[in-house]
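Note to self: the last two entries modelled the partners one at a time, which told us nothing about the interface. This time every component goes in together.
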Amino acid sequence: MAPVINGRLLFNQLPNGLPEPGKTTVYDTCETIDLETAPLNGGILVKTLVLSIDPYLRGRMRDPSIKSYAPPFLPSQPLDNYGVGLVLRSERSSFKQGDHIYGRLPFQQYIVMPAAAAEQYTVLNNDTGLPWTAYVGICGMPGQTAHHGWREFSKVKAGETVFVTSAAGPVGATVIQIAKADGLKVIASAGSDEKVAFIKSLGADVAFNYKTENTREVLAREGPIDVYWDGVGGETFEAAIGAASVGARFIECGMITAYNGGEPYYVKNLLYIVGKQLRISGFIVTSLHQAHLSHFYETFPKLVKEGKIKYKEDVTKGLEHAGHVIVDVLTGRNKGKSVILVGEE
Amino acid sequence: MAPVINGRLLFNQLPNGLPEPGKTTVYDTCETIDLETAPLNGGILVKTLVLSIDPYLRGRMRDPSIKSYAPPFLPSQPLDNYGVGLVLRSERSSFKQGDHIYGRLPFQQYIVMPAAAAEQYTVLNNDTGLPWTAYVGICGMPGQTAHHGWREFSKVKAGETVFVTSAAGPVGATVIQIAKADGLKVIASAGSDEKVAFIKSLGADVAFNYKTENTREVLAREGPIDVYWDGVGGETFEAAIGAASVGARFIECGMITAYNGGEPYYVKNLLYIVGKQLRISGFIVTSLHQAHLSHFYETFPKLVKEGKIKYKEDVTKGLEHAGHVIVDVLTGRNKGKSVILVGEE
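The predicted structure of the combined assembly is written out below.
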């Protein structure tokens, strides 16, 4: 069989503000691979089917000397993120041809995975028959983020009130549904009327467009809030502190407003952290896997399959579009969990 | 017996920035009381012996329409705070003449306490024979704050590092000693060389004067920090976020730099709350009494009496000086736990 092109999305240069496709990232087609003869040296050959696109990727486009929770992308190397791949060939007993694997995959169409690296992947059995894209969304990192963060930090009682931001995003939309199942009043915000309609359809009691309604005023009317699910930070974080009840729990899963550099919004009421006895917890989903991942896989795919937890995907076909899709998720233009369909089975 | 003057420190007008004795507070001697004949109507007559002076009193000098954790002082009424009083006469079976009681007392020399109000006081047995002033300091609210906050939130392992601010204050100085007993490396800051010498004498491994050494640089050299004991907020809070290890615990017991109004310092690195997975907990000591107060009284007075926990008092004689002493604690001029000796036994 003749070699085929092995397309890759490479990290090219540091962005200043929002990343720019063609500058920050470059789609490269100069490499080829012979899928039948490429030597595996004891590893596996994987075809990338699905890649997840998430706001936190912006944080990895940084000077490698700056430390942060996720490693920086390296110049001229492919980006990477959670994805689902198909095993085309295997020289390891733990994987066989036709297996679907989940884990961090580089942004390239085919990967020869060395033996040691292969072991970090999970084989998905998918006995509920969900589409593979679901495994980077509602049944992948975003769903796990909502599930783990809520179980670890929310400490809710029925009748309490939660404020969910980025509520039309894959994490926020899931949090709304978990919170409703727990008997809470849910206030949720998003950045377009279309998104607001979506979060209302998920059961949010109060849904508003933060671009046309003032968050502080909505919280003054509908709060106080006992739980704050934060995906944005900045001025919204300040409004949440102002509307928090005594002992409120703040679950800090992202501060997207601070990701693109520039001057951050200055929060003026941190003093209330003491007086209101707030519990503010930042977290990274992987740190909570040990405590919550098995419960997640036992319950979530089934709830999703039964329609008890709804989700929305925004699927783009073709790795060459990934650079633009990253900008879309950073500016809120995506309509559901953003996924790149890199290859078909 | 002739009536005696019953001196009182009254709240007179809202301060703008630091309170001003004679304006914000006024010492008043126009009331008298006959200690033998004043009717008790089923209550008790108390002579105030000791009153505590603490930074949080500034927060109570506010417009009553502003809500906060501690109630506002009311115009023309005496201030109040934790203190120790001597029961001169009692018409309640739960108190007898000669009892020493602990609780919130008004800033006045003698109080006829109505029956219902009397029940909020604790009779101190003081079987260790500590001076009564100790019961508003190391064995009172500041000691309890250190003890409760540490037990509830620090979650330390021996070998970790803590950064203690306001470290020469009665809370911070106690935290240093608890942390050393738990096997931690202690970095501690205070605002004068004399205070630095004091905190070194308590066992701090690294003690520095934040007015002459840069907090950020000290933490870069001596950190990262696993626990941050915050009594100051603002720029120091920012430095602590910068020097925090992943999963660090921030115990927020006060943000004194924000108490006196004006523009707060703007913390620029709140984004790291997520990436560093910080646990930030604000608290008010009274909320933790249920979980920790009995352990406190079982252990602390004994440790203090045996010299295993050291403390330092700054005692001022005479209620008429209380207005100035409040300014001293807000500006860091006190040398140890600030106490007013209102009356002798």
